[in-house]
Amino acid sequence: MLLQTVPRAHLRNVVSKGWSARTFTAGNAALKAKTSSKTQHTHKVTLVPGDGVGKELSESVKAVFAASNAPVEWEQFDLSGHVTTNDALMKETLASLRRNKVGLKGILYTPVSRTGHTSFNVSMRKDLDIFASISLVNNIPGVPSRFKDVDLAIIRENTEGEYSGLEHQSHPGVVESLKIVTRYKTERIARFAFDFALRNNRKQVTCIHKANIMKLGDGLFLRTCQEIAEEYKSTGITFNNMIVDNASMQLVSRPQQFDVLVLPNLYGSILSNIGAGLIGSPAIVPGANFGREYAVFEPGCRHVGSDIGGTNTANPTAMILSSVMMLRHLGQHDHANRISNAVYSTIRDGKVKTKDIGGHSTTREFTDAVIKAL
């Protein structure tokens, strides 16, 4: 008997808030979205700029939203992973997210040192149970890339797996790290992936795993996805599975074979970064995190960008497109369409490009060009 999970109706509502993975292609799909009747309603949104390039990217989003008169009121919290005394601010940030239900965030620094604090990014996802991460990987006209016709969605379980953080040293020089996989959480991420595919006209879901070696943990993940796939047979969505090392090779050989990928936490992190390499830059991959009650939007490739923070050279595309996903989630389709079209036309025009996509423009120059294109 299957464990009770998040009601399927709720998940379908989550993945059909008016935005689609296809919306972020360069075509006219976005223009077909209907304008929400709630356009005049102002939404309070929690904003966490993050570390590294986060502040610059957030300022870019705020400038674009102001220029387009997007009905969003920001509650900003300058949380930082570089500071170990941020517990009080973390609590305030979480309280704001619980009030507002929606947030936009940059990536927070996590120290590598053994004595460093735990990841604020992971803590936030666990505390709010925002269990489903989506990274949208598709070509953008005007961005040089190794492949064409890449259009895939990477759906990653966000709250367990190797990111459970359960480690101990059983003997000097011997560390045991626990990977947690539960049927409950695998069921809900699998249903989320199939409902996402169903609502966004996707045709295939691929489960990525390492069940040939981790027969219990990844075996449970694979078997549970297979069982959930049976429930969706009548929809016409096909299901297959692939071992993670083979999937990595297949992604860099023929990425067009993939549509929706559902996978555990660590594999999702790795393949999202491979996906970014396929299309030319991690700075053009938007992302979102969904739970039962809350949605937090952030770039799909979770890079802090500490090396270029404060240099006015970062590409704000992923942050802006993540905020576009947020607007669609809030029902603000008209504003979302205007902003996404402005971003795509700016990149396609080719006159203003940041360094990562073959240009020499600054963050502010790119932002100004997007605003001019609104």
From TrEMBL:
Q: Which SMART domains match?
A: Iso_dh
Q: Which InterPro entries match?
A: IsoCit/isopropylmalate_DH_CS, Isocitrate_DH_NAD, IsoPropMal-DH-like_dom
Could you name the domain of life of the organism this protein comes from? Eukaryota
Please list the reactions this protein catalyses.
D-threo-isocitrate + NAD(+) = 2-oxoglutarate + CO2 + NADH
Enzyme Commission number(s) from the entry: 1.1.1.41
Alphabetic keyword roster:
Mitochondrion, Transit peptide, Tricarboxylic acid cycle
Class of enzymatic activity (EC top level): oxidoreductase
- Report the locations given in the UniProt record: Mitochondrion
Q: One short Pfam family name for this protein?
A: Iso_dh
- Which Gene3D superfamilies does the protein's record reference? Isopropylmalate Dehydrogenase (3.40.718.10)
Q: Where are the transmembrane segments?
A: none
Give the residues annotated as coiled coil.
none
One GO biological process term: isocitrate metabolic process
Instruction: Please give the Gene Ontology molecular function terms for this protein.
Output: isocitrate dehydrogenase (NAD+) activity; magnesium ion binding; NAD binding
A Gene Ontology CC term for this entry? mitochondrion
- Summarize the subunit comment: Octamer of two non-identical subunits IDH1 and IDH2.
Q: Which NCBIfam families match?
A: mito_nad_idh
Family according to the record: Belongs to the isocitrate and isopropylmalate dehydrogenases family.
- According to UniProt, the name of this protein is Isocitrate dehydrogenase [NAD] subunit 1, mitochondrial
